[in-house]
Amino acid sequence: MRAPIFLMLAGLSAAAQTPLVRILNTTHPASRKFQVGDQFEILITAAPHQPISVRTTMQGRTDWGPAIASTDDNGRWSTTGRFAKSDFGGWSQVWTVGGKLASPTIQFFVGAPCVPEGEGFVAQSGPNIVTTCDTALGSQTFSAPSLSDSFRTPDGRVVPGRTPESLTPDEYHTEILQNLITGADSDIETAHVAHVSLQSSSGGLGDDVAGLIAHLVGINALSDAEIRTLLAVIRAAFERPDTIAPSARSTVKTLALLHRLADFTDEPSLKQQIADTIAYVQTR
Question: pLDDT for 89-143, tens place per residue?
Fold first, then answer.
């Protein structure tokens, strides 16, 4: 009898260590969909007194948030809000609690509050969506924000808009890294990523790549797929040591990042892959 009881307790312990998150439509509790004007509540359950952050993606733009709160004595935290007209569009929220990814990743679309049987028109070009329809307040037009528009995160912070022309070299390189990380669960092949070597006018970025990654991610955790992508990026950064800029030939920031990535995963094979990458960097 001991073995089944032990396994059951071990399973409960593992489940208790996994932070859980859910978003509720408190205006229409029976609905899993959201419209402009709906109130929402986000609930997190985890261990007590753990820092909380969220990576928010709105219509393809991503903000890696800082610590915004912590779980209480009972391991709970919640926040409420209401979707405004500016929130129209597609959303993704990846919550981190105590250095671990909360489950699941939240994805949803905030739609227009069109009245049933009313007239409406929808136009879409790539990620750009515009809806014009009859609402309780009359005919209205709803459009998803563009890259140059600001957007609001779940914790109420406003992320300013930006244009490619306004990016500094570091911001440009960070944008590339972000696209690689957030595309890690899609069709981006590791073999392709392995050939991405970021360069400055002085040479390869080397150790500075890890600095950019650490600054981008902040306290937010990463998925196993995202970690594997970064391992390929790091290897590419040190593949040709003779081409690295003199100021970026250290490995201090890279080794610190790799040790931190090991804390994000419980997968033995990935931990070994990280250890192999540490050994690779130390020999460069």
Answer: 999 999 999 999 999 999 999 999 999 988 888 988 777 889 999 999 999 999 9
- How far apart CA 146 and CA 127 sit, in angstroms, is 9
Element holding 165 (H helix, E strand): none
CATH of domain 12-159: 2.60.40.1930
- Distance of alpha carbon 209 from alpha carbon 238, whole angstroms: 10
Ranges 15-19, 46-50, 274-278: which has the least confidence: 15-19
pLDDT over threshold 60, residue 237: yes
Q: Which residue carries 């500094």 as its tokens?
A: 168
Specify the amino acid at residue 70. S
Among 272, 278, 177, 181, smallest CA distance to 226 is for 181
- Cα–Cα distance between 251 and 249 in angstroms, integer? 7
Q: What is the pTM assigned to this prediction?
A: 0.87
What single DSSP character describes residue 196? -
In angstroms, rounded to a whole number, what is the distance separating the alpha carbons of residues 57 and 173?
19
What is the β-pairing status of strands 69-70 and 51-58? antiparallel
Distance CA(196)–CA(235), nearest Å, equals 10
DSSP string, 28-93: STT-S-EETT-EEEEEEE-STT-EEEEEEEETTEEEE----EE--TTSEEEEEEE--GGG-EEEEE
The predicted pLDDT at position 9 comes to: 38
Which helix H or strand E contains 274, and what residues bound it?
helix 268-282
